[in-house]
């Protein structure tokens, strides 16, 4: 499904079956010399067919097209190396590139699983989070690194990189100042709440995310184009909802710690309310457990960084208490 949103800006909606994300919105901006594709979908057959069909319908020649990856997650980066031509640049932030190429282990390690409090049988998070809808880029790629403030000029549009850490450590939005257009990636999604997980040791990912939301709230934005579900929405009302959501979650987590006296991220997640279609915690699909424990960890860590909780490392496991 393709739609022209503004002059020379198109959205290709790519299905993501068996995932609450439902789809990814890949954007194409046609320029004079070169075009830009923003995000790609997973490296799997369904995404590949939908994306290449969309690019064909828009008459996009990959020899004249570069690819911008908002963040390292496989639903955004998976197909970049598959569809790129020899002349395509593939843009990404440095920190997310390092995660993508495995230099930094963001989430999928047994050590991390242990720190989060996963029980023995569930410690191999990498294995349990593998599923047939999650395919990562396979070919080695020469990424072109972008940082906050860098500009990609394309015909009528000048797209500025806005660093918005939170959903990933190096998440980049693109902002067109003249027409006040924001490509928000997974930083702002309208119909679902972007997953915030803890990433690297001793970094407050939720704190970073809330700051990144405030950063966007200060900017004049007329059009927000998001990466999942509804492509278009009002970023200001959504930012307020997202901040409120996390404030409520922080209260919920604080109440759980108070009740349990001492707890891990895993145990906290089992006590939080989730909108996952499962009768109880044990019936959660493994990937949803990973996301839930990550969310619990991000909220616990934020409370720790704010000085509202204590954190102790015993047996390489983080325990939180009041
Ligand atoms: Zn995504």
TrEMBL record:
Kindly state which keywords UniProt assigns to this record, in alphabetical order: Coiled coil
Signal peptide (from-to): none
Q: Report what the protein is called.
A: Metallo-beta-lactamase domain-containing protein
Q: Which Gene3D superfamilies match?
A: Ribonuclease Z/Hydroxyacylglutathione hydrolase-like (3.60.15.10), Winged helix-like DNA-binding domain superfamily/Winged helix DNA-binding domain (1.10.10.10)
What's the source species for this entry?
Answer: Acetobacterium bakii
State the SUPFAM superfamilies in the record.
Metallo-hydrolase/oxidoreductase
Determine the domain of life of the protein's source. Bacteria
Supply the source organism's classification: Bacteria, Bacillati, Bacillota, Clostridia, Eubacteriales
UniProt cross-references to Pfam families, sorted A to Z: Lactamase_B
Domain Metallo-beta-lactamase residue range list: 23-228
> Which spans of this chain does the record mark as coiled coil?
236-263
Please tell me whether the keyword Coiled coil is annotated for this protein: yes
Report the InterPro entries cross-referenced here.
Metallo-B-lactamas, RibonucZ/Hydroxyglut_hydro, Sec-metab_biosynth-thioest, WH-like_DNA-bd_sf
């Amino acid at each position: 499904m393709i739609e022209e949103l503004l002059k020379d800006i198109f959205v290709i909606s790519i299905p993501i079956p068996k995932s609450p994300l439902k789809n990814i919105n890949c954007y194409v901006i046609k320029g004079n010399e070169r075009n830009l594709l923003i995000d790609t979908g997973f490296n799997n057959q369904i995404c590949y067919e939908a994306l290449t069909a969309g690019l064909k319908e828009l008459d996009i020649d990959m020899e004249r097209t570069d690819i911008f990856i908002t963040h390292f997650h496989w639903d955004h980066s998976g197909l970049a190396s598959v569809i790129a031509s020899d002349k395509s640049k593939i843009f990404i932030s440095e920190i997310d590139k390092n995660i993508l190429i495995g230099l930094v282990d963001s989430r999928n390690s047994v050590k991390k699983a242990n720190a989060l409090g996963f029980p023995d049988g569930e410690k191999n998070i990498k294995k349990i989070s593998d599923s047939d809808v999650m395919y990562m880029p396979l070919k080695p790629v020469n990424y072109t690194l972008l940082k906050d403030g860098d500009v990609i000029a394309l015909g009528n549009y000048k797209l500025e990189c806005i660093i918005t850490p939170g959903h990933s450590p190096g998440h980049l939005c693109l902002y067109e100042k003249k027409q006040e257009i924001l490509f928000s990636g997974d930083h702002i999604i309208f119909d679902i709440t972007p997953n915030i997980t803890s990433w690297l040791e001793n970094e407050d990912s939720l704190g970073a995310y809330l700051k990144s939301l405030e950063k966007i709230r200060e900017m004049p934005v007329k059009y927000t184009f998001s990466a999942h579900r509804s492509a278009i929405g009002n970023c200001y009302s959504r930012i307020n909802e997202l901040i409120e959501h996390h404030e409520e979650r922080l209260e919920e987590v604080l109440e759980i710690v108070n009740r349990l006296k001492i707890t891990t991220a895993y145990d906290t997640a089992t006590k939080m309310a989730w909108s996952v279609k499962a009768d109880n915690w044990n019936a959660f699909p493994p990937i949803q457990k990973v996301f839930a424990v990550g969310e619990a960890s991000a909220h616990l860590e934020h409370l720790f960084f704010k000085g509202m909780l204590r954190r102790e490392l015993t047996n390489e496991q983080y325990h939180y208490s009041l």
